[in-house]
Amino acid sequence: MNIVDAKVIVCCPGRNFVTLKLVTEDGITGLGDATLNGRELAVASYLNDHVVPLLIGRDARRIEDTWQYLYVGAYWRRGPVTMASVSAVDMALWDIKAKAAGMPLFQLLGGRSRDGVLVYGHANGQTVEDAVRAVAHYLDLGYKAVRVQSGIPGLASTYGVGRGKLFYEAAEPGTAPAESRWSTEAYLNFLPGLFERVRAEFGPDVHLLHDAHHRLTPIEAARAGKLLEPYHLLWLEDPTPAELQEGFRIIRQHTTTPIAVGEVFNSVFDCYKLIQEQLIDYIRTTVVHAGGITHLRKIASLAEMHQVRTGCHGATDMSPICIAAALHFDLAVHNFGVQEYMPHLDETERVFPHAYTFQDGYMYPGDEPGLGVDIDEGLAARYPYDPAYLPVNRRLDGTMHSW
Ligand code: KDG
Ligand code: MG
After folding, report:
1. Residues 354, 263 share a domain
2. Smallest Cα–Cα separation from 381: which of 13, 43, 1, 5?
3. 241-253 burial by CB neighbour count: b if 16+ within 10 A, else e?
């Protein structure tokens, strides 16, 4: 079952996506998401210039060998551009294998471990009361888990608050990133009051989450975790930048608030210490950025042995192909925790028709063979690439800070 065609499709139906489409000699097609927000063309070039030529003529059934060929074989291992490329090939090959077997992918991964995939959405508002209204809206839609972000008094813009009621889209079209300003003091003074208000309004049962988006030092993150303990979050996400895995020990020593991290990780080597020392509770590596289904399964297996659950990144910069792949994975792995899900814009949905569905707080990948997602190439061609950047962030005195 040799690969006879491989095509990289870059399109912008509301936001930019990079897609890899493989075709086998038997006419089976496989799709992979290769989107890297704000750096899309770097991945498209890596694929076009260095991966596509190696794929033609390869046996599409040899998924593990192809993964190792692209990872070990490149000599220059890891990094988001390389790994998004490897991930796209891997996703497309699993799509092909499952289609050839006539099964939805989750069946090849061991079958269902649960009935549906618990998902969380993003409630956000400029003020606490706006955020409370947004949480109420999510609960009306049936969500059982909601991430809550709010504007902070004194700061003009804040991560997680922006366009759209049901989603947060951070990348802004343009040829340079927007700049925002940050004050850790204002944030830490404000945060407990937000969750006090939300818990008072909605009671103890709804799962609440919050993303600190890499902005705190370990000791500041420990303080945030302690302040939030009375409101028993499902998780506090990315409390501190995770290049320094040891930093998480300080957080752990001070708080029982569960910690999630990993949306920017590319491999098990970014998180094995966090997992083995049980410094985190949820690992957020996702299919498109951490080596596809093949590598994510290895991360999940390590995590399972250490009572760490999965919580895959699922913001709108994961295309419906990645969301579909994540849902198959979530349904099958034993130590699944929760899946992030933000609905895509209608234009995106039309370009990527898919079998997955949402109902009453849970998602279902559907029973179509493969991933259950397609790309309408004619329609995609009507949405050419449009440069967009994630913002950058500075402290009030102008010093660059993590965004
Ligand atoms: O591309 C970056 C976004 O996906 C990220 O900022 C969203 O932190 C995020 C989240 O938790 O969804
Ligand atoms: Mg995040």
Report:
1. yes
2. 13
3. bbeebebbebbbe
213 is catalytic: yes
User: What residues make up the domain containing 210?
Assistant: 108-368
**pLDDT tier at 168, thresholds 50, 70, 90:** confident
Q: Is the CB of 342 under 6 A from ligand 1?
A: no
Please indicate whether residue 103, judged by its CB atom, sits closer than 6 Å to ligand 1. no
pLDDT digits (tens, 9 = 90+) for 209-242: 999 999 999 999 999 999 999 999 999 999 999 9
Write the CATH number for 57: 3.30.390.10
Distances (CA, A) of 131 to 195, 279, 341: 10, 30, 18
Substitution candidate for ligand 1 out of 119, 234, 263 with most atoms within 8 A of CB: 263
**Atom of ligand 1 at shortest range from CA of 237:** 11
Residue 159 is a catalytic residue: yes
CATH number at residue 169: 3.20.20.120
